[in-house]
Queue: 2 jobs
Job 1
Amino acid sequence: MKIALQKAPRLHKGIPWTACEPFVENTRATLIHRVRHVTTHKIGDRWKAHLAVHALCGTSFTGTKKFTFLSEPPAGKLVCARCEEVATKRNMEPSDAIAGRHVHLGRTIAVATCCADVAAQGEGNG
């Protein structure tokens, strides 16, 4: 199932996609995102074309091979909670309805790992 995409704002060059699958998996990321817009960029003959993928949550990715566009998120994977929140505010179909089953939502958070020894010794925050 393909969905219509928004046109990228301030698009100077590149070929905007008009439709694609509603979800994207990036092999270098944890979450499955909801697609907002996709553009194919071809800089010149010396380089391969690459994609710029923008998600509803505001995150974006660029690359050539690391994307898989999906009609539904794989079972057990987490869909970006922020993407789902934005989709709901825009009256878009929820991920559960698209997939025809419950879809797990999630987020990733940054965790400081450099000062674990100092914190464990009670010497403060760095």
Job 2
Amino acid sequence: MGAGTMSAAELAPYLAGPGSAVVCLLLVGVGGYRFAVSYLVPVLEATVARHMAELERANARHEAAVTAHLSHISGMGERYDRLAAQHADEHRAILEAVGDIGAQIDRLTDKGTR
């Protein structure tokens, strides 16, 4: 054989050792890639889609609860305003009575100290 060529006997150890390891590595890599693309990606995609749908449902429930609470709070404010308007006269009468009692106490106290 020529100076730059190898015989089959000289080439066999390379093909059986490092060469076959490289070929095996490439085959395993291609198989792993195909497995990931054909199985893992669709499974992950479906999982993410389910998760996002659940988040959207939770967000809708939360939004409905917030809307209900806000309408309830708004209703409480309106009820307070209505009750305050209904009882404003009573409130003024109570304040005047308390003021009158305070004046009477002051008069009695002044009489007792003289």
